[in-house]
Every structure is written in C-alpha cells, then in structure tokens.
Amino acid sequence: GLYLLISSLLQALNGFVLVVTSEGLIFYSSHTIQDYLGFHQVDVMHQSVFELIHTEDQPEFRRNLRWALDAGEPSAAGKSLSSSAVIYKPDQLPPENSSFLERSFVCRFRCLLDNSSGFLALNLQGRLKFLHGQNERSEDGSVLPPQLALFAISTPLQPPSILQIRTKNMIFRTKHKLDFTPLACDAKGKIILGYTEAELRMCGTGYQFVHAADMLYCAENHVRMMQTGESGLTVFRLLTKDKRWKWVQANARLVYKNGKPEYIVVTQRPLVDEEGGEHLRKRSMHLPFTFATGEALLYQSTHPLPGFPDLFQSKGKLSKSKKPSCSHVGCSQKNGIDPRSLLGAVMQQDKAVY
C-alpha cells in the first residue's frame, strides 16, 4: 500500500526524485525519470550522474555536491570530474538542518525523448543530507563516517504541454537481440502494439514489423548503434496487431555484459501521424543509406517479387544487413531470399497492410 501511495505521488509530481552521492554516483532515482529523460530507473542507478549532464553544466553540479559553496572550497573547475570526493569528518560539517545545505540550481540532462537539442533543462531543488548505512572504508581500512549526498526533486524548467502530459505515460520499452529480434516488451508496449510477447518473438529480426519505406533508415541507425552504443532518435512506423501503422520516436541502446554487447533496449514514444509525417519530410532531404561502413551490402535478387512490383523492381538494388543466424526453428528461405535480410523482412509482411 505504501509503495502504491509513493508511486501515485511521484506520478502527480512534475518531475522525478534523484539522490546523488558526493562522488557523483546516482544512489537512487524514482522510476518517473523515464517519463522525462527516457532512461529507465535500473539503467541509471549506481552510474555516474556526469554521464547524463551537459559538459558545460558538470562543474556547477559538482559544486552543488559540496557543502561549502564559497571560495574556501577547492573549485570544481580546478579538479578532474573523475577525481574522488572530499571526505568530511562529522565535526567539519554544519548541522543537517542548516540552510547551508539547501540546494536549488539548473542543469541540462541528456534526454532520449527530445528531438531538438537532446538535452532537457532541469531545476534541482533539495538539500544535502547524510547517506547512512554505506559502510565505506578509507584507504587504511577504517570505516568512514556517513557522507553528504544530494537529495533533490528534478523538474523541467518549461512546464509540460497538454500533449506531453498525455504522451509521457505512453512511453514503452522493448528488448532485442543484437540483430533486433524481439525478446521482450513491457505492458504498455503490448497495449499500444496489440501483440503478445510470443507474437513479437516469432521468427524474424523484428524488421518485419517496420514499414518498408523506413527499413533502410532504421538499418542505418542500427549500424550506428552497433558502432557507438546508441542509435540516436529514430522515427519510424511499426505495424500493430490490427494492421495499422503506428509512428514511434525511438532510441535504441546497447547493453553490455563483461565489456561485450549482450542485447538492445529500445525506449519508444508513440507519435501522432502529423508528427511522423513531418519527420518523414525532413528525412527525405537526406540520402537514405550509406554503404561506406562495411556492415551493409548491396542485395541483388533475380527472383520475382510477388505483390511488390513497383516497390522494388524500380529500385533494382536493396540493402541487406549482415545479421547473426536466426535461432528460431522453421525459418524458410522463401523464394531463395534470406529471411534475415531487409528484403526477406518485407517478404514476410502481408501486402494488404500497404
């Protein structure tokens, strides 16, 4: 009951709770961080907060982690952001209810949901409080006293529009193999797309749910993600269970285990058709795909393409992304076309959806 009460209070709050240690590690974030920045609570906890903060704002954030803001403290600008925090003895600190420990400042945070700057300006309001129960030890092995951590409520500077309020609760996440084969989908995603997890995990790389006109664009961002760890904002159409195309704004990210990419997590936000159309017009001004990276190969087929004469035969050549072999049983080489290729993905689609 207490959890539900806290959860409902967080939903009503225009922002999210953040607790950051003196070293800059995120000790806690409320799950509502996903509604504002697009990052899942689990992804940010125990990570450096500076990974999320605009480079120019990092010194200001570090300054606010220190109890003394005056010139007597070593300046953040003069220290490396990765340097260890200053360890205070209890008698060096003011009482916990001191006004010296109150904090209110603005920082720009990385935002997966923003399609302009990629950052969201947040006002952080709270105070430094002792973080108990850490049992950290100094270099000589002695237990360190509890240290101050920043407890703050982070709220956007700009009040959210009605549209943002309506759509923030529609954000959903999917999990994929490295070739984009779907592995899991959260409850909101199942409602929005209409599929069960079993239906999403059917044989194929997941591209069979993507609109043919968006496939090369998605594949290019897929290649970028494999190289850099993140796809960047990608706007495309997904096929829903009721045979409709749903525009989504997505950001895909590699999740590593023991230093190696293990799977992909995608945060997605549904868009109205007008928003999707605007992105499509902007996209059409750029070349649809580049073949300079080596991950993409020209795909030539001498086989007839039933149902798609105009769509493909006028193009002559299409891209085929190199993908790991499908682990599912029963993948057919329909018309001799590799079902793992983009062309194979389109061939699995029902032509009636177009």
List keywords for this structure.
354 residues; alpha+beta; Beta-Lactamase; 5-stranded antiparallel β-sheet; 11 helices; 23% helix; elongated; AHR protein; activator; DNA-binding; nuclear receptor activity
Question: What would your notes on this structure say?
Answer:
With 354 residues, the chain is of the alpha+beta class. Among the domains are: 11-67 and 96-136 and 145-161, PAS domain (Beta-Lactamase), CATH 3.30.450.20; 170-285, 2-Layer Sandwich (Beta-Lactamase), CATH 3.30.450. It is built from eleven helices and twelve strands. It has helices at residues 2-12, 33-37, 41-44, 58-65, 162-168, 187-193, 197-200, 215-228, 273-283, 309-313, 342-347, and strands spanning 16-20, 26-29, 102-110, 119-131, 147-156, 172-176, 182-185, 234-239, 245-257, 260-270, 296-299, 318-321. The strands form three sheets. It has a five-stranded antiparallel β-sheet. β9 and β10 (260-270) form a beta hairpin. The chain starts with a helix and ends in a 7-residue tail after the last helix. Mean pLDDT is 75; it is low at 71-84 and 288-332. Keywords: Activator, DNA-binding, Nucleus, Transcription, Transcription regulation.
Layout of helices and strands:
Layout: H1 2-12, E1 16-20, E2 26-29, H2 33-37, H3 41-44, H4 58-65, E3 102-110, E4 119-131, E5 147-156, H5 162-168, E6 172-176, E7 182-185, H6 187-193, H7 197-200, H8 215-228, E8 234-239, E9 245-257, E10 260-270, H9 273-283, E11 296-299, H10 309-313, E12 318-321, H11 342-347
Antiparallel strand pairs: 1-2, 1-5, 3-4, 4-5, 6-7, 6-10, 8-9, 9-10, 11-12
